[in-house]
Amino acid sequence: MPQNPQHQALSSTRRFSLPFRYPFLLAGLFAASTTLALISPHLSPAVHASLEASPKEVLDEAWQIVNREYVDITFNNVDWQEVRYELLSQEYSSTREAYAALNRALRQLQDPYTRFMTPEQYETLTSQTSGELSGVGIRLQKEDDSDELVVIEVLPNSPAANSGLEAGDRILSIDGAATEDMTLEEASERIRGEEGSSLTLEMERDAQDSFEVNVTRARIELTNVYYSLKSEQDMTVGYIRLTEFSAHAAEQMQAAIEDLSEQGAEGFVLDLRGNPGGLLDASIDIARMWLPTGTIVSTVDRGGESIAIRANDTALTQLPLVVLVDGNSASSSEILTGALRDNQRATVVGSQTFGKALVQQVYRLSDGSGLAVTISHYYTPDGTDISQLGITPDVAIDLTSAQQQQLSRNPDSIATSADPQYNRAISVLETDVALRRITDEASEAATQSRVPLRGTAR
To answer: Of these residues, 111, 169, 285, 342, which one is catalytic?
Structure first.
């Protein structure tokens, strides 16, 4: 979407705004086992004894995982054994102090995607990837020019929707705390909470006086796929917007493709703008719905072993396809885009994608905190490394700042004539659909010409 990922979040939330840019790709969620037997011999007996007590146990869990799994076996040329000694030789007066030491250690890797998560942050991430959350059901962003906290989307049938909140509303305070100086992360953490609990939001709408809304948090199954059948340029278009690759995304995508196909779609626009990524498996499953054969993605691990993941002849449609991307399309979005482009299955329209070509594994630590570790590097089917560079669209069209703000503040204008990138996608699709019609008509005519005449020979 036109939003900056540093300025958007789904409150309470499935989207967690981090100090670095958010997009990530998860290879899966697995529990990490404690490996305290692997204590290096130069640690003192006192350290051995104190290791059993939290929080050092968690520090060593995290260190062991990075030591065993991290993609760069040089650890960014850091003496990783010495890092462990420093971590476990210190005394910590609180869990927070220990967490801060671990964060300092991980920063030495200079990899923003290998990161520690507090128990609260880990819970947020797992809620996000599960496709469910406990919250009120609003997506937020921070305005660049005013620092206002703005609602950009209200999920249907959510507590926020039932309380009358609307896109474009501004949140002035959360349970009495002013939002002006809050980060998205802070605001999201205040809004999310236990199912059944309530919070008070002070809101502002247009030029009206501010008003308060009491909202009760609920468990929400998130919709990651939005779709509609559109009539554009004398053709029937199936428009699909995928916001994130959650655990439910593939089944929702399948339903969208099948429904739109049954309704008579002649071609598709798949909108991945603003999609920061998500689960690796979801991106592969969705790629196979569009791509009958060919490589989807290749991954290379710390040992240099390469694994190619391929399509499996289970595509749901061969109709013309255009993919919309922007600078906020990252990770799993880039895997899907790269697979469809490199296999000539789709035309890519929009602006340069983010450029994240790393795969993370997420581990749950013994105290409920979490650790995301980069375990491999991925390449598009033609062998391109998109790190930092992203994917260049086949048809490039950038939005001006004014156009981005207009679409952000008026979500209903996305995928309409007021959306320049969507308009260009329709122009491209129109050509592809016209060629498809010609091919289909020629094929039908050839079939008709081969039908034998019935009658009596004389």
So the answer is: 342
